[in-house]
Design brief:
The chain has about 180 residues and is an alpha/beta fold. Helices cover about 30% and strands about 25% of the residues. Helix 3 packs parallel to helix 4.
Length: about 180
């Protein structure tokens, strides 16, 4: 059994001043920093995922922009793997599966952004591919959504998606349970 940490899309466009600011982004990123440090201290693999938008009409993560860069709080460090993606699912048309196989990963801990989009899609795909998945709830963030004229607050979106994932596709936990005493 080999554990690895997958960090999804913690990029500048999600932070204040970015093209698609998320609710609670600074707090979630700070927790992700601690989780990454924990994995690095144990010599466990860290895989960073960076979304570069190629879809016509995309409004954020545009190629060769500051917004698409990894946030300074979680830079690519020596020994980290980088996977570039163009779709919400981190496995779709990327090298992620190959990287995980080469590292003999069986257990995947996931943190990142947006809970309701790329995190959800990647968690479900990882589960379908046979990985044991742990999702660190407080190291994820999302935004308000709207449907049929009704606004859904980010906190409700977050809770709904985490509830749907937990137990069926992943074990959803707090960072405290990953980091230990």
């Amino acid at each position: 059994m080999t554990k690895a940490l997958l960090i999804i899309d913690i990029q500048n466009d999600y932070f204040p001043g970015g093209a698609n600011e998320l609710v609670g982004i600074a707090e979630a990123a700070a927790v992700a920093v601690k989780v990454k440090a924990h994995f690095k201290s144990q010599g466990l693999p860290v895989i960073m995922v960076q979304h570069i938008a190629i879809k016509p009409g995309a409004t954020f993560f545009l190629p060769d922009t500051y917004g698409a860069e990894l946030h300074e709080s979680l830079p690519l460090e020596e020994g980290d793997e980088l996977v570039v993606k163009h779709f919400p699912n981190s496995f779709r048309e990327t090298t992620l599966l190959e990287v995980l196989k080469n590292l003999n990963v069986t257990d995947l801990t996931i943190v990142g952004m947006m809970t309701h989009m790329c995190v959800d899609t990647t968690v479900r795909a990882a589960n379908d591919l046979g990985y044991q998945v742990t999702l660190v709830a407080d190291a994820c963030a999302t935004r308000d959504l709207e449907f049929a004229g009704a606004r859904v607050a980010a906190a409700q979106v977050q809770t709904s998606y985490l509830a749907a994932i937990d137990g069926s596709f992943a074990s959803v936990v707090s960072a405290a349970s990953v980091l230990g005493p």
